[in-house]
Specification:
Oligomer: single chain
Shape: elongated
Distance between the termini: 143 Å
Strand content: 25-35%
Largest sheet: 7 strands, antiparallel
Number of strands: 35
CATH architecture of one domain: Sandwich
Radius of gyration: 42 Å
CATH topology of one domain: Jelly Rolls
Structural class: mainly beta
């Protein structure tokens, strides 16, 4: 019992000693803290002699409550003085780094140059500027283009390659319509012939032995005529019986000295000067307008075989095409050529022409010139295009698929070829003759 009491006494003395030690330490710490200055929170500053936490303010380039958590100004903003006020946005078309503390940190963004202090102007067409700062814009490299405010130049239509170059021309049989780094697109099925550097699908022309509209894919809408289609065995299409004009033509050819060799000549008494050669440019927003008794003529520059024509009326003046005459022949005087079709009647499939529809009319003819004539009133239309179709070989003759002309038709066994002027026939071999 005595032993236990002595042990308990010793334990109590130890505990008391520990409590006295802790009290002494707390007293020392309290005394020290009352004698030294506290450090302001991170990214804050205070004036000399400050005596409370609220005197600690967010430093320039940082914002937040006094004595609290401070956050850097976002890019494109700045803050010049200490305090709790928010950051100031840079002027339009300027940018600054995060945490900026001076208006001079605001510099012209990429794609803009310093026109004068405080004002940045956009880089113009075919120029670029990739960096931030007052520097001038730079001209695009060869075969590249750009829009205003560009930071890089892109390969122009008809050329491909990475942004900024170098750029390579599209191969023959391909095209690229827009600027950018995308690759060139192959011509639609059964067509090709687009030259190196082609920038329009319309530069893809139907292959020999096919017929249809140049530069049209099977899923394209807005056209009555088919894409380039193969002439099957025992039929043929003349080389001139493919699409003869329309989408092949480029801007204002024949009206202001254009030199596109694929575009046949076109003449009219008056043509609205839209951004393309009206009437045979593949566009429906450029118009031909003919006065009473005037004509619009296309010179195919060779004799062509035509099977049908398409005409796109002016949407606001559909009736102005009704009654127009389409004449095809070899005379330079349009009215001397045979009448091929009358516009505004029924289409070749028997349906009636409705407002804003493409008129597709049979026009079986051969000649160098195609003319549109309208008597009695003015006529307006947007697009006229001529086409050929596959034709049957002469009787008792055959041909393979893709026959490019009538000469590809061969007389069958037991028949010989006999010429009659400009045409030939297959005639039965006479007595004592044969043909394998």
């Amino acid at each position: 019992m005595v032993h236990k009491l002595i042990k308990t006494s010793r334990s109590s003395n130890t505990t008391g000693h520990m409590l006295r030690s802790i009290f002494v330490m707390m007293l020392v710490v309290h005394t020290a803290s009352a004698r030294v200055c506290s450090i302001c929170p991170e990214n804050t500053i205070s004036e000399p002699g400050s005596y409370n936490l609220d005197a600690c303010q967010c430093k320039p380039g940082w914002y937040g409550p006094n004595g609290g958590l401070c956050v850097q100004c976002d890019a494109g903003k700045y803050k010049t003085a200490a305090g709790s006020h928010i950051c100031t946005p840079c002027p339009d078309d300027h940018i600054s780094e995060s945490g900026s503390f001076s208006p001079r940190a605001c510099q012209c963004t990429a794609g803009y140059y310093q026109f004068y202090e405080g004002y940045c102007a956009p880089c113009g067409y075919d120029m670029y500027k990739p960096e931030v700062g007052p520097q001038s814009c730079t001209d695009c490299p060869l075969n590249t283009v750009s829009q205003p405010t560009s930071i890089v130049c892109q390969c122009m239509p008809g050329w491909y390659g990475p942004d900024g170059g170098p750029c390579t021309q599209c191969n023959a049989g391909t095209y690229k319509t827009a600027s950018g780094s995308q690759i060139c697109t192959p011509c639609p099925d059964n067509s090709g012939g687009s030259p190196v550097g082609s920038s329009r699908i319309s530069q893809c022309v139907c292959n020999p032995g096919t017929h249809g509209r140049n530069g049209v894919r099977p899923y394209d809408l807005g056209y009555m005529s088919p894409p380039c289609t193969i002439c099957l065995a025992d039929t043929y299409v003349e080389a001139g019986g493919m699409q003869t004009f329309g989408n092949m033509c480029s801007s204002k050819k024949n009206y202001n000295g254009g030199v596109d060799p694929q575009c046949p000549s076109a003449t009219a008494t008056w043509v609205q000067m839209y951004p393309a050669a009206a009437g045979n440019d593949g566009r429906r927003d450029s118009l031909v307008e003919l006065g009473n008794g005037n004509t619009w003529t296309v010179d195919f520059e060779m004799v062509r075989t035509i099977s049908y024509v398409e005409l796109w009326n002016d949407r606001a003046n559909t009736e102005r095409a009704r009654g127009g005459e389409v004449r095809v022949g070899n005379s330079i005087v349009p009215r001397e050529n045979p009448l091929c079709a009358t516009l505004g009647g029924t289409m070749y499939d028997g349906s009636h022409v409705e407002i804003n529809q493409v008129q597709t009319l049979d026009c079986f003819a051969t000649g160098r010139y195609l003319s549109v004539i309208k008597d009695g009133e003015w006529m307006r239309f947007g697009e006229m295009t001529a086409f050929g179709r596959c034709q049957n070989c002469p009787r008792h003759s055959t041909s393979p698929d893709l026959a490019p002309n009538v000469d590809a038709c061969r007389c069958m066994q037991g028949y010989g070829r006999e010429q009659h002027g400009d045409i030939w026939i297959c005639k039965t071999c006479g007595l004592g003759k044969y043909k394998a």
